[in-house]
Design brief:
Blueprint (H helix, E strand, L loop, with lengths): L5 H18 L2 H11 L24 H8 L5 H38 L1 H4 L1 H25 L4 H12 L2 H15 L3 H33 L2 H21 L29 H14 L8 H22 L4 H6 L7 H28 L4 H20 L4 H6 L9 H11 L7 H30 L6 H26 L29
Helix pairs in contact: 1-9, 1-10, 2-4, 4-7, 4-8, 4-18, 6-7, 6-8, 6-10, 8-18, 9-14, 9-17, 12-17, 12-18, 12-19, 15-17, 15-19
Keywords: Membrane, Transmembrane, Transmembrane helix
Pfam families: MFS_1
GO molecular function: transmembrane transporter activity
């Protein structure tokens, strides 16, 4: 096994966090663009070349001042609602354009990671993001039609986006840590990225007011290129090939000699089915399959709850809050800082009390539900800030899902399981972001907090599933746990058969 320095992993995490924090500001840019081009004649025949010249020095401060005047000016109020509907609708279409290629490429890159190499798979999403940023800059400078946003989104989808990047980094972190330290290491890295995100989002709000958006996207483009160079230099592929099919296909009579080049279709079908065989009751102990499925579905409903916040930016920009880019940056930064500090302290506190990962996830969903309901009924800005006392403890499901699964999995099963989790993450998040943006666009005029109420509902379902998981694991006897505490080295395939084995 090739050891990769924790400093190299942390560096890539930080650089990618900076890039994606900058990328997240594009919603503010598009919203301000729509608000400035509101059709006063009432026809609302918005042209495709909608990007105005605000990209250098103009921020959304004018949008904020118009929002504040909504109570006394019905025209401003109509413009605000129209801009939110148009922005949410554009993001709905953008998410649709990248969803299908992203789902397909997440599967392909995830399953074939052992053959392609982790280094190559790690570089692919960085190249996709580089292409996206280049197109965004072209849109801003040359006022290109809005379908170029879809093309940029499609290119990112073909690269697997951040889902594949997180998937590969998760595999690397698991291989570089002992089982007892794994959960805390994941939480530590998440706290690190959250802190970096806080600093960047805080600074970006003020920078946008000073210089606009363009410089930030140039910076992000440069950081992507630096990330690619670091991966090439420091993330070397393992010298061995992991035999991912050892136990996954042990119940079948398939052998290396039976897999011929004349049967490629069956081989590919086996690759696809192998993702799900880990969760199968037929090939695994009953308690193991139930536990893995409960973890997976709890994670799915957490992702659904999290996806409802895809429209949260529009929620902040609308009345009664009417926030500017500075307000958004300050709030996001404070949220990230509080999450980085208190989530880590909370994890240590729960661990000191002897709470298992399942109990920690169960409690986190209670915090998630409370936080969503608090925000849904907030009327003042201070109430949103007060909600930050609750939200830092609401995301443990995200950090602990893979460590919880890894405790049930043999080393040769993890690539398939993590690939399936990455695929599920991609499907739920891409379609979820698109659907919830569409729902917000339909409900913003009369029921603007509807998506936040949906978040609370999804979180309650995850809470119930974690309660069931705790009940299942508590009834288990020690002899039912088949996973060894010590991890054996993966088997090296013989050179003579390496080109015939099932690629996973």
């Amino acid at each position: 096994m090739t050891y990769i320095s924790n400093y190299a992993i942390a560096t890539i995490l930080c650089l990618q966090t900076v890039c994606h924090s900058i990328i997240s500001t594009v919603g503010q840019y598009i919203y301000a663009s729509y608000l400035q081009t509101y059709p006063s004649n009432g026809t609302q025949n918005f042209t495709t070349n909608f990007i105005p010249s605000i990209h250098l020095l103009k921020s959304i401060n004018d949008a904020s001042s118009q929002c504040i005047d909504n109570t006394s000016n019905s025209s401003n109020s109509n413009a605000q609602v129209w801009a939110q509907e148009q922005s949410a609708d554009l993001f709905f279409r953008i998410d649709l354009w990248n969803s299908c290629p992203m789902i397909i490429m997440t599967y392909i890159l995830g399953v074939y990671t052992p053959k392609l190499g982790r280094q190559f798979v790690l570089i692919v999403p960085m190249l996709g993001t580089t292409g996206q940023l280049a197109i965004w800059l072209a849109i801003i400078y040359f006022h290109l039609a809005d379908y170029w946003w879809y093309i940029a989104s499609f290119i990112v989808g073909l690269s697997g986006s951040s889902y594949i990047l997180n998937f590969v980094l998760s595999l690397i972190i698991v291989d570089n840590t002992k089982e007892n330290d794994r959960s805390s290491r994941f939480v530590l890295f998440e706290a690190l990225t959250t802190t970096v995100s806080a600093i960047v989002t805080f600074a970006s709000g003020y920078y946008i007011n000073w210089r606009g958006f363009t410089d930030l996207y140039w910076i992000s483009l440069g950081l992507q290129i630096i990330s690619i160079i670091i991966v090439i230099l420091f993330f070397k592929n393992s010298s061995h090939i992991v035999n991912e099919r050892t136990s996954l296909l042990s119940s079948s009579s398939v052998t290396v000699t039976q897999i011929k080049e004349s049967r490629p279709l069956k081989s590919k079908c086996n690759n696809c089915l192998s993702l799900f065989q880990i969760f199968s009751f037929k090939n695994q102990p009953r308690q193991k399959s139930i536990s893995l499925l409960l973890i997976l579905f709890a994670y799915i409903f957490y992702l659904l709850a999290y996806s409802t916040y895809a429209a949260f930016l529009w929620y902040l920009l609308d009345s009664p809050f009417c926030w500017s880019s500075e307000n958004v940056g300050n709030y996001t930064a404070l949220a990230s800082i509080s999450c980085a500090i208190f989530s880590l302290l909370g994890m240590k506190f729960f661990t000191r009390l002897g709470a298992s990962d399942t109990i920690i996830c169960t409690l986190s969903h209670l915090f998630f539900t409370a936080s969503s309901l608090w925000i849904a009924f907030a009327k003042r800005s201070w109430q949103l800030y007060a909600g930050l006392l609750i939200s830092p403890y609401a995301d443990y499901q995200n950090a602990l899902t893979l460590p919880m699964m890894s405790k049930w999995l043999e080393p040769h099963e993890r690539n398939h399981a993590f690939a399936l989790v990455a695929e599920v993450n991609t499907i739920v998040t891409t379609f979820g972001d698109s659907v919830f943006n569409w729902i917000y666009a339909q409900t913003v005029a009369n029921f603007r907090n509807f998506t936040l109420l949906m978040a609370a509902g999804f979180s309650i379902i995850s809470f119930i599933l974690n309660i069931c998981l705790f009940g299942v694991t508590r009834r288990m006897s020690n002899d039912e746990i088949l996973i060894s505490n010590s991890e054996s080295e993966p088997l090296i395939l013989p050179p003579s058969t390496s080109h015939h084995h099932i690629v996973s």
